[in-house]
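Researcher: I'd like a structural prediction for the single chain below. Treat it as a standalone chain; there are no partners to consider.
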Amino acid sequence: MTDWATIAVRFALYADLMILFGLPLFGLYGLGRATAPALPFRRLVAPTAAIGILLSVAALLLLVSSMSGMPVSEVDRTSIEMLLSGTAMGAAWQIRIAALALALLLALAGWRGRLTLGGMAFAAAIALATLAWTGHGAASEGALGWLHLGADIIHLLASAAWIGALAALLLMLLRPAAVMSPDHLTMSHRALAGFATAGTIMVALIILSGIVNGWILVGPDHIGALFTSLYGQLLLAKLMLFAAMLALAAANRFRLTPTLKLALECGGRAAAASALRRSLALETGSAMLILLLVAWLGTLAPPASIS
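Model: Treating it as a single chain, here is the predicted structure.
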């Protein structure tokens, strides 16, 4: 029976922590010294970190409920303490809460500058990495287990960097082009152009870590299960959405971003910005659907684990 409550909380937690990491990271490499006028990062990070704490608590209650076989309303303190003190997942959860609290503190402290932005990104990276202990990567043992966990963490961080950049770029272009100043549009174009190299690295890391995970979770002996099992069908859907994201990213880089630059010089800014906004929205929507599939996949047994 599908546990939709767990899937919903897992999806929301993945999306929240990825944006929490990806936004300040993009501020560091994508905007340079112009972070403050471009996006209010501290005001975006604070509620995102707070929501991450609440979602982590909800995920913990659902996990204890699932492991103990009791309803969420009947989960007691003893069961929670046993999970937190006696399992790797519990230790990872505590580290996540501490990292999220640090990100929230940095966002609320009022300090400005790249050092604060870097601190928020670092804290969010730690929080995001702990999600690897809630997935299939934590089930492997020995050297294979560490390889799987490492690939999971790289996959999470690279994906979050891409999603956070999409969120930042979409926010920059969200307002109507008619009320955007030429300086803001120029800054947006510079950010888009600067994302090109970083985006290529992110995609490469996602593909390489995905291959490692796929080899461990599916393996060459279970390729047929991709078409006959629910896990395999969801994984194929995820790969098709990823391909769609790559196509949209290529269109942004090679067609829409140069068009925006030309529009800044020759006119037609509104149409160029609108086209980019639509493309970024589609790319972000595809990313959210992928996260939903990832949340669902995490509740299913992969083909390699079924004899």
